[in-house]
Amino acid sequence: MEQLFSYGTLQSKEIQMQVFNKILPGTPDQLTGYKLKDLKIEEEFGMTDYFVAMPSENTSDFIKGIVYTISSKDLAKADLFESNAYKRVQIKLKSGVTAWIYIES
């Protein structure tokens, strides 16, 4: 099993149903030393505003999110869902859990 930390769209139950065909149980957690940055992504009907995690020079910065335990197959589905504006890396959360996260590519 894999751990996936979501700070945005993948927390939506509607998106989870579209991507994974199920609702994911998760636990609130935080990623310290990171901040969110605005990101514009071109979609079918034009540009859409999102945000992306990026390392911060300020170690007190943090991002709130949810950590999900998912299968390798579901992680591959998440990779397909995320655009090429993101890359997946492993990080350590405030709780000590090591998880995958999508950050600025």
TrEMBL record:
Boundaries of every Gamma-glutamylcyclotransferase AIG2-like domain copy: 4-103
One of the Pfam families matching this protein, by short name: GGACT
Organism: Flavobacterium cupreum
GO molecular function list: transferase activity
Protein name (Swiss-Prot/TrEMBL): Gamma-glutamylcyclotransferase
Assigned keywords, A-Z: Transferase
Family matches, as CDD domains: GGCT_like
InterPro entries (UniProt xref): AIG2-like_dom, GGCT-like, GGCT-like_sf
